[in-house]
Amino acid sequence: MSGPTGGKSGENSTISLPGHQAQLGVQAPLRLDSGAELSNFTVAYQTYGQLNADKSNAILVCHALTGDQFIAESHPMTGKPGWWEIMVGPGKPLDTDRYFIICVNIIGGCMGTIGPKEINPANGKPWALDFPVITVGDMVRAQTLLLDQLEIEQLFCVVGGSMGGMQVLEWAAKYPERVFSAVPIATTAKHSAQNIAFHEVGRQAIMADPDWCDGQYLSFGKVPSRGLSIARMAAHITYLSDMALLRKFGRRLQDRDSVSYGFDADFQVESYLRHQGSTFVDRFDANSYLYITRAMDYFDLVSEYNGVLANAFKDTKTRFCVFSFTSDWLYPTEESRLIVRALNAVAANVSFVEIDSDAGHDAFLVDEPEFEKLLAGFLEGAAEHRGLPRVVKQ
Amino acid sequence: MSGPTGGKSGENSTISLPGHQAQLGVQAPLRLDSGAELSNFTVAYQTYGQLNADKSNAILVCHALTGDQFIAESHPMTGKPGWWEIMVGPGKPLDTDRYFIICVNIIGGCMGTIGPKEINPANGKPWALDFPVITVGDMVRAQTLLLDQLEIEQLFCVVGGSMGGMQVLEWAAKYPERVFSAVPIATTAKHSAQNIAFHEVGRQAIMADPDWCDGQYLSFGKVPSRGLSIARMAAHITYLSDMALLRKFGRRLQDRDSVSYGFDADFQVESYLRHQGSTFVDRFDANSYLYITRAMDYFDLVSEYNGVLANAFKDTKTRFCVFSFTSDWLYPTEESRLIVRALNAVAANVSFVEIDSDAGHDAFLVDEPEFEKLLAGFLEGAAEHRGLPRVVKQ
Questions:
Q1: Which of A266, B30, B132, B143 could lock onto B36 through a cystine, CB 3.0 to 4.6 A?
Q2: Which residues on chain A are in Cβ contact (under 8 Å) with B210?
Q3: How does pLDDT run across A362-377, given as a tens digit for each residue?
Q4: Inter-chain touch B204–A132, beta carbons under 8 Å
Q5: Is the per-residue pLDDT at A298 higher than 90?
Q6: Catalytic annotation on B199?
Q7: How far away is chain B from the Cα of A183, in angstroms, using its nearest Cα?
Q8: CB contact under 8 A, B270 and A226
């Protein structure tokens, strides 16, 4: 199998993505949890800052479901700021004067890394549902191949929120010697029934769209925009707290003084959601959405370690800092506590912070000064232990 | 306008509904909040028990979004037990040996009362989107016409959960002299931004289905099953708590020992949701779903009384008992507290009970012994004040 870069197929065919690409699985294929194999496939990634001489200052940022590798620069498709510009840059918590930041578009994604919208060399068409189902474990295993190629033996830190946090946990569990420190944010060690339920609604919305064409929409020159948009709308509600929606919109009307007695977007919150749905369609692939949500639903580090999460972290030397947010109801603080308890049970080096925020799950993406300060502080402390100077030495 | 009964149109055309029907708006039309008028329209309702000689023992049960008038008997379309058989019957809290129970299918509904699937006499086709948008106020106003026809001056009690609770609040606010006691359950005085957001996802899912045909699906012999099913799935998640989903399903697999690495319903919760969606389509009209969710979104008793909910209940003599459930995140206890505070502010006769339950919003529909006992107790106390004997006297 070979996976051409994202520029060659489907709805993004006119976009040439900036950044790095690596060919992985060339010597030996990547074996997936499903048993399928990926060989000679492209992984797109982005870096910020400079790798130091002994390659000890690399921070891997793992992105969330609909995130990508464009953390700290304008997004090449939307023109919007990078999704974590608040955190990543000179003098910021993930200080690019000090650290070398890497972010890899996950396998199964749609921003240049192999995924269902890329071309299947077996038939010259987009993979669509012939792409193998992937897991969070597979995403991380692909990332280890990239680090091998970059000759980075140990990451100074792996950090990520939401599905990014699942990857952090997977890294720490499976490759502890490669992870000096780890920061799982607003995440969980296993997807709950409610989490799966919301994802299933999104998948059914996509698959119900006649333009989905049993997954073959790219070959037919179509896009299941309505289904993908509805999936995004439903998911987006789970990213915000009730309070955040009240603060942002309440029951305020959109461009009118009184209700229309009709089915227009009378309320601002309706208009906002519709906008979230329709703009998402322009930048994301519907099949990728199916694959990535599936990977998240499959994530269950607890059962993988026979019901005892602590076993995942036995003898770990990694330094952990776990963050949760008070108003996050998608992955509530209690889920983080279970992770922390497991780490405590193996006497791991762990600190835990619950940030007081009304922003909901998305709090890790927005300006939360206390979160930024504490994350910066944890990284500084870890950097001292690791002996990293304040400015990169080549 | 005339509204034939539910048996004459659309997908339910083979079903002849049992129960009562009344022609309302015959002398004068019902004026709706939108300014539109309904005249000579059918309202379907069901009764249990016997009305006493002085017509003082009537309890009006107001149904929720997808409920109907078949409270305490097999549903004529699904064959399932009535939705409140737990509560309504001889010796039960709503004791049919003592009280006369009435439940009216709301206007805009699809079980025999006028709504978008009934025939528009202007063109002989189903109303579809030509049906006027209705409000909770309109639903209640239609119910007052029925009570006029039945010559019931004052209800002994108005009781209802969820949207039924909104009708209870509307009754108590607008027709206090007709309501001896009122029991709003698991409800809110105004729909929140999050409530509106979830409804909007459902509406968009329906309207995105090509079989919706701009609302004209019945005229084309179609049903937007996929869209309506997705709307139901999304809504259903909000009716259950995270804990209820964990208890019922957790991460258990459906009819298999290991995950399929595919997009089948691997997890029981997926299978359950799909089932909820597909069975709903058989008994509910998609346009009714649009109209009723819209009515709920428009409900805002607070702004109707200029931001002071207490004004809605000024000088009320009605006896209130407000119920909420600890794990209800759709209309959380805090919403009930706001109602209770407003009632307290006008020195109303009100008691408030938060029931400890992990069943989520749907707790009012399932077997919660404490809830049943306390509701029975409140009704008994009110019945004594009203002078109702233990058994109906004709």
A1: B132
A2: 210
A3: 999 999 999 999 999 9
A4: no
A5: yes
A6: no
A7: 26
A8: no
Q: Following CA atoms B295, B296, B298, B301 in sequence, which dihedral angle do they give, to the nearest 10 degrees?
A: 120
Q: Between the CA of residue B219 and those of A101, B123, B211, what are the distances in Å?
A: 59, 11, 11
Test mutation, B248, B251, B274, B296, chain A, max A CBs within 10 A:
B251
Specify which residues A351 forms β-bridges with: A321
Chain B nearest-CA distance from A377, in A, is 34
A182 pLDDT above the threshold of 70: yes
Burial A263-278 (b: 16+ CB within 10 A, else e): bebbbbbbbbbbebbe
Q: How much of chain B exceeds pLDDT 90, in percent?
A: 94
- What are the DSSP calls for B70-100, one per residue? -SSS--TTT-PPPTTTTTEETTSSEETTT-E
B127 pLDDT band, cuts 50/70/90, is very high
State whether A226 and B208 contact (CB < 8 Å): yes
Torsions phi, psi of A197, nearest 5? -60, -50
Instruction: State pLDDT tens for residues B185-235.
Output: 999 999 999 999 999 999 999 999 999 999 999 999 999 999 999 999 999
Phi then psi for residue B5, to 5 deg, are -75, 165
* Nearest residue of B to residue A249, measured between CA atoms: B193
Residue A304: CB atoms within 10 A of its CB come to 17
What ranges make up the beta strands (E) of chain A? 20-24, 30-31, 37-38, 41-48, 58-62, 88-89, 94-95, 100-104, 119-120, 125-126, 155-161, 179-185, 319-325, 349-355
- The angle formed by the CA atoms of residues B40, B42 and B47, to the nearest 5 degrees, is 135
Residue A264 is predicted with a pLDDT of 92
Contact A270 B329 (CB under 8 A): no
Catalytic residue among A209, A297, A361, A362: A361
Q: What's the pLDDT tens digit per position in A280-289? A: 999 999 999 9
Which tokens go with B231? 């709307």
Nearest 10 degrees: Cα torsion A312, A313, A319, A325: 50
Binary contact (B251, A303; C-beta < 8 A)? yes
Q: List chain A residues with CB under 8 Å of B263.
A: 129, 133, 203, 207, 290, 294
Does the active-site annotation cover B357?
Answer: no
Provide the mean pLDDT of chain B.
95
pLDDT at A16: 75
Nearest to B275 by CA among B58, B78, B26, B16: B78
B134-163 pLDDT, tens digit each:
999 999 999 999 999 999 999 999 999 999
CA distance A235 to A202: 7
Q: What is the pLDDT of residue A147?
A: 98
The continuous run of DSSP H or E covering B184 comes out as: strand B179-185
**pLDDT at site B197:** 98
From chain A, the residues in CB contact with B33 under 8 A are 261
Using 50, 70 and 90 to split pLDDT, how confident is the model at B12?
very low
Q: Is B361 a catalytic residue?
A: yes
Does A6 have pLDDT greater than 70?
A: no
Q: Note the pLDDT tens digit of each residue in B159-169.
A: 999 999 999 99
Asked if A294's CB is within 8 angstroms of B263's CB, the reply is: yes
Q: What residue type is assigned to position A111 of the chain?
A: M
Smallest Cβ–Cβ distance between B204 and the set A201, A230, A266 belongs to A230
Closest partner residue to B226 (CB to CB) among A201, A208, A273 is A208
Query: How far does Cα A358 stand from its chain's mean position?
Result: 22
Return the residue of B nearest to A215 by Cα. Answer: B263
Spatial contact of A306 and A299, defined as CB atoms under 8 Å apart = no
